[in-house]
Each structure stands twice: as C-alpha cells, then as structure tokens.
Design a protein that fits this description.
heterodimer; A: about 140 residues; B: mainly alpha; 434 Repressor (Amino-terminal Domain); two-stranded antiparallel ribbon; 5 helices; 2 strands; about 60% helix
C-alpha cells in the first residue's frame, strides 16, 4: 500500500535524537550563556531569549514531528487506519484542552506552547499504544498455541 | 463481518506470518482480521481470497450486525 506524505522509517530515530538534544540545552540554559527568565533582554528580534526559545522549541517540535510521521517498518492499511484514528483523537484532545485553557487562563504564551505539544505527543502515545496492544495479542496467542 | 481465514490457513498449512508476507501486510494485520477486530479493505480481501484460490464470499461473510 502506498502511503503518501510520510517520512522514511529512519526519521523516527532522527526525531528521537533531535528531541533528546533539546533536553540538555534546556537543563544547561545558564551555562550556555542564555539569559534567564526575568532578566532584561534587548528589543532585537534575535535576542538571547528568542534564540533560546527558537532552538529548544524547534528542536523539540521537529523531533516530535519526525517521530510521529515516520513510516512504520511495514506500512499497511491497518497502520494507516490506526494513524488516522489517533490523529482524530489527538485533534479532539487538543481542542478540548485549548478551549478549557482559553477559558481558565490568560497565559497565551503557554497556551500556544501546549497547543504545539499536545497533538503530537498525544498522537504518538496513542498510536504506539495501539500497535503495542496488537503485538501483545499476537504474543498471547503464540503463548497459547 | 465474519471470516474463516484461520481454517483456510490450516487447510493450506501456512502461518499468519507467511500469509502476511504473501499479501504484503504485517502479521499483526492478519491477526486482527482473523480475530474480527479489523475489517480489511476490498483490495486486501481479494488478495487474501486469491491466496486461497477461492471467491471472497467463501472466506468473508456478513455478520448479523452488519
């Protein structure tokens, strides 16, 4: 089955790598010379705060994007269906959270951040969980046979 | 939708993995079809029928709920 608009399988590992790289940058923010939260920053577009935000957020988001939309080893119609179902769930959850957070919070920066993360993370977790369930059923049957 | 893939496989003496490879899907997909948790597309149903050399209706049949 041909599936369009998906990255090759190895992009999943590239995605994990990008995602992992962003963690030490966040942890060692100060050591790497980025200005801390609350410190005065210049008005330039490419000030320390903005560059930090760009590198970490982009690394994380692109990493998650690659993990989410890399091909499975065997990409068949059932995987396609699981993918579509999981995407629908992810959009539902994202919009419910978005509406709730818009009502309860005025912190638009964090709402945007949440909105960036939730669909991808929820999609990945739900999709992998379904594949895990299918694999578990196969192993169970083999155990019985 | 009901199916008797498991019986046909036993007659032909092939495993889920072998059937999966013949029609180019994963073993998980064959497994979920056999246990009625996934309804295959027409294309896949026709491919499965072709492996067993039978018409689709001999392998898949409608359930009361369909």
């Amino acid at each position: 089955m041909k599936s369009r608009f998906l990255f090759p399988h190895w992009f999943r590992y590239l995605g994990f790598a990008l995602f992992l790289i962003h963690i030490p940058i966040v942890m060692f923010k100060k050591e790497m010379g980025f200005s801390m939260h609350g410190e005065p920053v210049s008005d330039d577009l490419f000030n320390s705060h903005h560059i930090f935000f760009m590198t970490t957020t982009l690394l994380m988001a692109i990493g998650l994007f690659f993990i989410a939309f890399a091909k499975e080893r065997i990409e068949d119609e059932q995987i396609f269906k699981l993918r579509l179902d999981s995407l629908q769930w992810a959009i539902y959850v994202n919009y419910i959270l978005l509406v709730v957070s818009l009502i309860l919070s005025k912190d638009t920066e964090h709402i945007l951040f949440l909105n960036l993360l939730v669909p991808l993370v929820f999609f990945i977790v739900r999709f992998r969980w379904k594949i895990f369930q299918n694999n578990r059923l196969i192993n169970k049957e083999e155990g019985q046979a | 939708m009901k199916n008797n893939i498991r019986i046909e496989r036993a007659v032909k003496n092939i495993t889920q993995a072998e059937l999966a490879e013949l029609i180019g899907v994963s073993r998980q997909t064959i497994n979920t079809i056999e246990s009625n948790r996934y309804v295959p597309s027409t294309v896949l149903a026709l491919k499965i029928a072709r492996v067993f050399g039978k018409p689709v209706e001999d392998i898949f049949s409608l359930d009361d709920e369909d």
